[in-house]
Amino acid sequence: MNKRLFRTQFNQMENIEKQVLMESLAARYDMTFLGLHTFDRWGQSCTTGIFKKDGREFVFVPGDTVTLGWEQFAVGLNQESREELEYLFREWEMERDPEEMIRESMAPVRQAAIGPMLVGRELEEINWEPVKMDDPRLTVHPDWLKEFCDFAWSDSSSLTLHQSARIERTEKGFQICIYNHTDYDALLAMLENRGFSLPTADEWAYLCGGGCRTLFPWGDELDYSMRLHWFENMDEDENRPYDMEEPNFFGLSIAYDPYMREVVQADRLTTCGGDGGCNICGGLGPFLGFLPCSPHCKPEVQEDNELNGDYDFYRPIIRLENYD
């Protein structure tokens, strides 16, 4: 494997060398190279290549050998996080050490050798398929069409008929999708057909945390100054992204919404980066609500292989296994 594809050597390269390397990757994988970009966040930085293929953006992520998992605070909780947890413990009439409780949700500490990858920058929906209004799978349901018509005259931005159909208001009109029931094996087969894979749980942890030893990529505490999904009123500027959704040090939008579980490669349906909103729905507050977004949180093995389009999302990757 080309050593220049690994983080230490890659970060030491001049941009002109990186440019040549990225152009060769684009040619090999039939992608359009959009250029180099520096992503600098939470104490980690990478100047890397952005690519486009089939309407989606990819970024080159160099490989590395890193420590993953969590067993103790590297720095410790800040006062706000500690007070939030202590309040919950009082409500539950529990006497617990926060570190001990958090450790139960974390994967064990381990060393992992992560290979270089081309990685989809955004999470993608699985079960929803865009269609036209005259699609026969829609027109056979006059009750759906009536609801869509009522929606069109409303002030709402979207309408979802549970695991059936969805309509969203866009700048160009309306986007309609129908829901296709599918399972984990079908998703893997579809990706393989197109030359893609899913990250493993270890690869996902690296993409999310970059080998950080703190609980979150930015530290052991929750940063309450960030605008967080589900805990921030964004009415003043609805189009402004939430802080955690902004690209990380690899240029990835990852682990920013606990309701969105990211499907990873495993023997059976396994997810990282969220719990489907269970902790938030349970009223556990922002710290425990976002704990499943930690790069070190235990991957969740689901009960069956049926994918849930409301909570399960995927990120295509290409492993550069034999690149010289």
Automatic annotation (TrEMBL):
This protein's source sits in the domain of life called Bacteria
Question: Known InterPro entries for this protein?
Answer: CTDL_fold (IPR016187), SUMF_sf (IPR042095)
Which protein, by its recorded name, is this?
Sulfatase-modifying factor enzyme domain-containing protein
Query: Which taxonomic lineage is given here?
Result: Bacteria, Bacillati, Bacillota, Clostridia, Eubacteriales
